[in-house]
């Protein structure tokens, strides 16, 4: 979905328009609309976007590190008027006054060398010095052109490893962002079905209260003509009182669940949400191998494994590189010097510097070798852990696929049980009214009816929860038959505008 943000915004506008049509602020909300609102407005979605922004700018910094930099350094000005110790020709010391003004500037173009890990610089500079006091004079020194190379010979190439690790890290962060959005979806599903179940409980409680009051009124009339006992009448009266208490409790629970979902979706406290019972996704069975392949292709876990293994290899390479250190410094160019600015660029002379610095341990009691062994051991630990994590990851996917494939059957059974229990309850009421069953049988039928209705809602929640869990792991939309994607540049631009 390349136009992911525009699509979400469009859905949000439609949802807002639907809200505006209701003067009493009662809003019918489908599961899909709730998910869209959560992805746009919830705090969790904003946190996920900020984490993506951090990863994005880290990756941008890495890419910029591979490009040439233009730098200016200078001292404008430097003034000194002090006394310094000076050794004369006879070996004695005296103090002389030093009074001068200096200005210098340097422009350099610096480029990291990814292939070798070194750094090359093209530079030009100009120094001006004015001796003050008696016999004052000016002097210029120019370096019109110079090339400087700094190159580690045996050390680790940080730039090469960065080019291997950072793209994987950023790819992992992008996948993690979409997974975080899907986590928002899963939380929305949980809150949505909690409210749906609370609303169903209230509807059941109101229905039961209404039926209990009707049955009690009928029982009073039957008691007058002696068709039922006093004990049965009191049982019905008690049932009516209990049903009234259950309604109050169900209403309180509904208000709590309403507030929870409303807060998560960042809606007004005046909005009353009426969740719509969702339909099933198009009927299909999921294949474990296909789901596993999609997960390994899209999930951040796969990138996380690769990154950690690369970082472990980098740690070993760094430890080996630090066993000895040899650095090459070379600088070539031209320099000129004169008391006038123009002539400081004439009669240029060569200016070359070549230095090779080295640090090789003669006796370190195995300290550097020990660091290499520690890094190698840590790498083996990481490889073992990632192997175990991979097995656990595959097992979780297998269980999710199995649960989803079985859940459609469980939901069908729950739906049939709900219809049968509802029919049995109505039959029991009619049978009780003609005196064919007692109050205990009637209460049992009511209890079975209530449990079957709630069971169906719970099984429906499990169905959608399994479905979106698999979607969040594979980052694949099985209904649209496409990978979940996002325009990350647009997301980051949107995040920047929202702060202004």
Order of helices and strands: HEHHEEEEHHEHHEEHHEEH
- Biggest β-sheet: count, sense, barrel? 6 strands, antiparallel
Mind telling me the C-alpha Rg?
Answer: 39 Å
CATH superfamily of the largest domain: Outer membrane efflux proteins (OEP)
Distance between the termini: 27 Å
What would you call the shape?
Answer: elongated
Number of domains: 2
CATH C-level name of the largest domain: Mainly Alpha
Secondary structure class reads alpha+beta
Helix content, binned percent: 55-70%
Give the neighbour order of strands across the main sheet: 2-3-4-5-7-8
Helix count, DSSP H or I runs of 4 or more residues:
10
What is the annotated CATH architecture of the largest domain? Up-down Bundle
Explain how this protein is built:
With 500 residues, the protein is α+β, with helices and mostly antiparallel strands. It has two domains: 4-62 and 162-308 and 380-498, Up-down Bundle (Outer membrane efflux proteins (OEP)), CATH 1.20.1600.10; 75-113 and 118-154 and 326-360, no CATH class. The protein contains ten helices and ten strands. The strands form three sheets. A six-stranded antiparallel β-sheet has the order 2-3-4-5-7-8, with no helix packed on it. It has a two-stranded parallel sheet with strand order 1-6. A two-stranded antiparallel sheet has the order 9-10. A hairpin with a 4-residue loop joins β9 (476-477) and β10. The model is unreliable at 1-23 (pLDDT under 50).
Structure, briefly:
The chain has helices at 4-21, 31-41, 43-65, 158-224, 230-264, 288-298, 300-321, 367-433, 439-474, 488-498; strands at 26-29, 69-87, 93-112, 119-131, 137-152, 272-275, 325-338, 349-359, 476-477, 482-483.
